[in-house]
């Protein structure tokens, strides 16, 4: 079996680096799956249409994350779309090579199984939160998720700059409601804002808003 360095060389020889401009689609809901994508640089949103001119953002992917895996299966059609939120570099690997790599590289297959299991658990939690959590709790969970994923800068602010429309779409609410919830959180001194930048002042109080009370 080829070693890790050998496999990395093979992958480099079979990959394509796609340079995607901010706002451009990487793949669209309904497209046929011809390969797999990894974010090499930049931030990508994974979204699904749920009503006319409305979208639900399922995830924000950053450097090193795999995207488009929801299209792998017996029906190789993307059920979601991916859009670059900033100029991005995307690693693309054609499906036949990726499938042959899984057949011959057991370590890769095992790692992918764990990735899919974690992704499934995260998706189930998202569905539960959207169904059972009130809107203020979903806004709170959105802010906590962004801090977990992107970390904080030297000033303690969440180290990513996103449009409030995109954060609202992740929280499953409207821009107007999201904006109002942020103002409530600021008035309660739970968060602080400086333009688009958000600082979580009280993690305990913010986390308490995400608790789902059994009926």
UniProtKB/TrEMBL annotation:
SMART domains: HTH_CRP. This is Crp/Fnr family transcriptional regulator. GO terms for molecular function: DNA binding; DNA-binding transcription factor activity. GO terms for cellular component: cytosol. Pfam families: cNMP_binding, HTH_Crp_2. Coiled coil: none annotated. The lineage of its organism: Bacteria, Pseudomonadati, Bacteroidota, Cytophagia, Cytophagales. Residues 19-119 form the Cyclic nucleotide-binding domain. Residues 133-204 form the HTH crp-type domain. Keywords: DNA-binding, Transcription, Transcription regulation.
